[in-house]
Design goal:
25% strand, 6 strands, six-stranded mixed β-sheet, Beta Polymerase, domain 2, alpha+beta, single chain
């Protein structure tokens, strides 16, 4: 896992914090899967917020050296996936996040502490 990819993921965490994303978790999955180096998982309180989180990331992440490969689920807003290759971002409404439980599915992945990046209000 490159330090550049980790910094890119941490920038995404900061952006999600700016828009009050909930339960942000960064998983280093590169050692247990070939899918990506990192999964970033978070929740929005509603479909409107998940779309706002996605929009904020799309407005502020491009140009960082990572090309957006695809966006899935934006229309529905229940589970939005942003695939940047080395980083895959999952934005859920709480019900979908509980149902799919990616944290359990990828339980062998290392959790990166991002709590220190949260903004306090």
């Amino acid at each position: 896992m490159s330090l550049e990819t980790k910094e890119f993921a941490l920038k995404a965490v900061r952006l999600l914090n700016e828009k009050k994303a909930m339960e942000i978790i960064l998983l280093e999955i590169g050692k247990v899967s070939l899918i990506a180096d990192y999964f970033l998982i978070c929740s929005g309180s509603s479909k409107i917020q998940t779309k706002a989180l996605c929009d904020h990331l799309l407005e502020n992440l491009p140009g960082e050296g990572y090309r957006l490969l695809r966006v899935e689920g934006y229309q529905e807003g229940r589970w939005i996936l942003l695939d940047f290759g080395a980083l895959v971002i999952h934005i859920f409404v709480p019900e979908e996040r509980t149902f799919y439980n990616l944290e359990r599915l990828w339980g062998s992945a290392r959790v990166i502490d991002v709590e220190y990046l949260s903004t306090s209000s």
